[in-house]
């Protein structure tokens, strides 16, 4: 335990040194990290960095230097445009998740430790040169004893221990940051860390990715234009993942000169995306160009299923309603849908929200569908929801980020293609299915049953309310942040008054003892003790009134 404590302290020194090196040293003073690090802390007195657009770039560089855990944290934040401004998201997307390769001997040991058998019994051949080497895993090409070409994703040795140690420190730092940040909005540092903790533990367990890949493989069956690699379960575990090897060209490197039909490739990318959204409810959450390959016949293949989004039928319908409302430029419906799918942090007038949405929709008024950048529109609506303190579910945030990436790919492949026009038939199909009585999911029947239950329950509930009101049992609880703040100030004033009276009483008592001549030393000691208590109380209260950091101004840099 003592060794772990020294290790954590040393890691904290590394983090603080990186913060100081990249212009964030002033925040160490605010979080009181110098009190922990002592003489090993960076030099004090550093001013806060000037507000500029390079803050995000310096933050990204710092995360890259601090290693795998921090790189993954940056990647998580880059997938959440509902948490950070767009220029921060764009900057964190540049984080390179590449590390020097691990020797093949260690990789073989990890495979044997995970699967419990010698490598020779598992594979006919294992290429010693890795295809890729990232912060958490390394990928090698191999051949099974049945002659199937596969890729083997192997977790790096001792990576779990390193991440667990960093997570403990990050949780502590998040708590310190939350204590000194002026406003945290609807996403607190500790809340973000809790989500990151869950996400990175899911990524460390390769069985989660295997389930995601298997689910997408099964839902994509029968779609000739789409290839999902098959998982080899007998050659996979929580630290080793084996999938079919897929050979193709990265979508960013596809050209017409190489014999590809760029328009058809773009249509296939869109069709795969919309079918996943409106039919499967299961979509690829990180479709960057490195995860999309183009195969002969203009087919596409998807890779890397660590981040997969899931939409329930209700969420799919809400998404369709939102798309139709945007297409019809109906701010009332857009406001109510966003308010319904999100979780308002505080009750805000929907009229203000609606008027802000009207301004955004008017910005696109008069543009043709092929002139509207849907990704930009989604970002604008997401930013607006956050500004009105509406917490958007993670699935929609991941979807918004994925849509930005997909649109960028389509614009590069075939900029004349109208994404909304191609995808509208899928949305219409799902929208019409809501009102189809023969739908196997029984949505219409369930809606009628809910309406019937509502008609039966409302009169009874209203009657009960009236009875309670008449009998004096009806109570209304009122919650107010302003009242809570006043209560906190009153409690603090009470503590201050108590300490002041205590110090005054002790001082007067000491003077009385001194004046009575019952002991010079005793009186002086009592008076000195009283004064020390008073000074200690005043210092303690003064140190609690730290000026907090404005998170909003910091993120705008």
Give your account of this protein's structure.
Mean pLDDT is 76; it is low at 38-42 and 541-546. This protein is of the alpha+beta class. It is globular and about 95 Å long. It is built from 22 helices and 13 strands. The protein folds into four domains: 1-96 and 168-177, no CATH class; 97-167 and 189-245, Phosphorylase Kinase, domain 1 (2-Layer Sandwich); 249-436, no CATH class; 490-545. Strand 9 (292-295) and strand 10 form a beta hairpin. Helix 12 (262-280) runs antiparallel to helix 17 and helix 15 runs antiparallel to helix 16 (374-387). The longest helix has 35 residues, at 481-515. Strands 1, 2, 3, 4 and 6 form a five-stranded antiparallel sheet that branches. Strands 5-10-9-7 form a four-stranded mixed sheet, with helices on one face. A two-stranded antiparallel sheet has the order 8-11.
């Amino acid at each position: 335990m003592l060794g772990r404590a020294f290790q954590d302290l040393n890691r904290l020194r590394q983090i603080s040194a990186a913060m100081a090196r990249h212009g964030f040293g002033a925040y160490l003073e605010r979080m009181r990290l110098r009190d922990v690090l002592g003489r090993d802390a960076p030099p004090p007195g550093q001013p806060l960095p000037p507000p500029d657009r390079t803050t995000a770039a310096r933050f990204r560089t710092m995360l890259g230097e601090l290693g795998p855990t921090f790189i993954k944290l940056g990647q998580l934040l880059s997938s959440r445009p509902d948490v950070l401004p767009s220029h921060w998201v764009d900057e964190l997307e540049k984080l390179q998740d590449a590390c020097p390769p691990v020797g093949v001997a260690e990789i073989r040991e990890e495979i044997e430790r995970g699967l419990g058998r010698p490598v020779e019994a598992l594979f006919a051949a294992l290429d010693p040169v890795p295809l890729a080497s990232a912060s958490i895993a390394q990928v090698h090409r191999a051949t099974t004893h049945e002659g199937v070409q596969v890729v083997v994703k192997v977790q790096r040795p001792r990576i779990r221990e390193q991440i667990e140690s960093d997570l403990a420190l990050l949780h502590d730092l998040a708590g310190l940051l939350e204590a000194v940040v002026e406003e945290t909005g609807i996403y607190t540092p500790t809340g973000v860390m809790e989500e990151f903790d869950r996400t990175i533990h899911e990524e460390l367990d390769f069985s989660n990715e295997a389930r995601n890949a298997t689910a997408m493989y099964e839902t994509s069956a029968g779609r000739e234009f789409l290839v999902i690699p098959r998982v080899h379960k007998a050659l996979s575990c929580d630290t080793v993942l084996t999938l079919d090897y897929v050979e193709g060209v990265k979508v960013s490197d596809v050209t017409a000169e190489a014999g590809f039909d760029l328009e058809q490739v773009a249509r296939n990318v869109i069709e795969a995306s919309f079918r996943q959204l409106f039919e499967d409810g299961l979509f690829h959450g990180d479709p960057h160009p490195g995860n999309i390959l183009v195969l002969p016949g203009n087919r596409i293949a998807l890779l890397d299923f660590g981040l997969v989004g899931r939409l329930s039928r209700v969420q799919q319908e809400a998404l369709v309603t939102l798309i139709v409302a945007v297409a019809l430029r109906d701010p009332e419906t857009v406001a109510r849908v966003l308010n319904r799918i999100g979780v308002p942090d505080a009750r805000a007038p929907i009229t203000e929200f609606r008027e802000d949405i009207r301004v955004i929709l008017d910005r696109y008024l008069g543009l043709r569908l092929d002139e509207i950048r849907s990704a930009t529109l989604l970002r604008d609506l997401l930013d607006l929801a956050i500004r009105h303190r509406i917490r958007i579910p993670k699935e929609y945030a991941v979807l918004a980020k994925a849509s930005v990436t997909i649109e960028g790919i389509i614009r590069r492949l075939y900029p004349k293609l109208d994404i909304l026009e191609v995808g509208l038939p899928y949305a219409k199909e799902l929208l019409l299915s809501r009102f189809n009585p023969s739908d196997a999911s029984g949505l219409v029947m369930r809606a009628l049953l809910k309406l019937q239950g509502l008609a039966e329950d409302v009169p009874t509930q209203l009657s009960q309310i009236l009875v309670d009101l008449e009998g004096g049992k009806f109570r209304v609880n009122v919650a107010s942040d302003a009242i809570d703040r006043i209560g906190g100030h009153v409690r603090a004033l009470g503590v201050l008054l108590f300490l002041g009276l205590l110090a005054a009483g002790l001082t007067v008592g000491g003077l009385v003892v001194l004046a009575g001549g019952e002991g010079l030393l005793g009186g002086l000691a009592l008076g000195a003790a009283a004064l020390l208590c008073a000074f200690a109380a005043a210092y303690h209260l003064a140190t609690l009134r730290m000026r907090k950091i404005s998170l909003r101004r910091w993120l705008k840099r």
